[in-house]
Amino acid sequence: MIHDNELLMYEIDRIAGVAGYLWEKGWAERNGGNISVNLTGVVTPHDLAMKPVRAGVALQETAAGLQGCVFYVTGTGKRMRDVAKDPFSNGALIRISANGASYDIVAEKPVAPTSELSSHLLMHSYLLASGRLSAKVVLHTHPADLIGLTHCKPYMDSERLTRLLWSMIPECRIVVPKGVGVVPYEIPGSIELAHATIGQLSRHDVVFWEKHGVLAVGEDVVECFDTIDTLSKAAQIFFSARAAGCEPEGMTGRQLDDLAEAFGL
Ligand code: 13P
Ligand code: ZN
Q1: Quick check: CB of 116 below 6 Å from ligand 1?
Q2: Distance of CA 41 from the midpoint of ligand 1 (Å)
Q3: Is 0.85 topped by the overall pTM?
Q4: In the sheet that 137-141 helps form, which strands lie side by side, from edge to edge?
Q5: Residue-by-residue pLDDT tens, the chain, 265 positions
């Protein structure tokens, strides 16, 4: 029984916890957002000995470098508030086949993975191939304040958007040291969106998708949430200053550089 694997259940609880935060934050309307976590080292051969609940589901693209890897993925059309309550009825553990062309759902119910599974897997492949072995999480969500900024053409520029968000509160410079990438609008779940996102992941851990949402990669699902939460706070400060009738001054370049020096960024 996978439920006897304490380490696995600990990881699943953390994912469920974050799914609950996404809902509470208002970032997960209906089935908005999805999460995948590479749990390969956590799942034991004993866990995998049981018969798959669904076998040999073909992948849109071969999952290069992920042969035999095991992921927890949220289900397509599933609500984050339900993932929080029951992660195994609203997501699944999948194992990529030995040739990378298909996957088995190994636990616990035949819940179809997110429609963005191919994109998630391409990102996991990229992270592994680029040596970021500890980056096990891909988290996508829909925070209205961050999406709002992508509707403003001047902020569809990585440097400008990064500078704006960093300058709203010191923590943002510290928590998101690589800044954010931006990707022009593409159809949700498309391979084009995945490739454009990967293009940004060499320089950033967070990517904004124009008029759609954000995606964060990282070692830990809670940290991915915290990163997006900090960006969301920065955006809210920007909007509150504007709502108060002034153009926010933002921290100066000097203040940001001093922070980088003080925190060794
Ligand atoms: P899924 O329900 O298929 O995961 O889609 C949610 C989403 O946010 C698509 O961008
Ligand atoms: Zn989305």
Answers
A1: yes
A2: 26
A3: yes
A4: 54-58, 102-107, 91-96, 70-74, 34-38, 137-141, 213-218, 206-209, 180-183
A5: 899 999 999 999 999 999 999 999 999 999 999 999 999 999 999 999 889 999 999 998 899 999 999 999 999 999 999 999 999 999 999 999 999 999 999 989 999 999 999 999 999 999 999 999 899 999 999 999 999 999 999 999 999 999 999 999 999 999 999 999 999 999 999 999 999 999 999 999 999 999 999 999 999 999 999 999 999 999 999 999 999 999 999 999 999 999 999 999 9
Please work out whether the CB of residue 31 comes within 6 Å of at least one atom of ligand 1: yes
Q: Is 114 in the pocket of ligand 1 (CB under 6 A)?
A: yes
The CB of 190 under 6 Å from ligand 1? The reply is: no
CB 247 within 8 A of CB 241: yes
Q: Enumerate the domain spans of the chain.
A: 1-139, 143-265
Do the beta carbons of residue 88 and residue 42 sit within 8 Å? no
CATH of domain 143-265: 3.40.225.10
Half-sphere exposure of 169 toward its Cβ, with a 13 Å CA cutoff? 16
AA letter at 97 = S
3.40.50.450, 3.90.1150.10, 1.10.10.10, 3.40.225.10: CATH of 1-139: 3.40.225.10
Q: Which atom of ligand 1 is nearest to 115's Cα? A: 3
Please tell me which residue in 6, 24, 108, 116 is annotated as part of the active site.
Answer: 116
Active site residue 116: yes
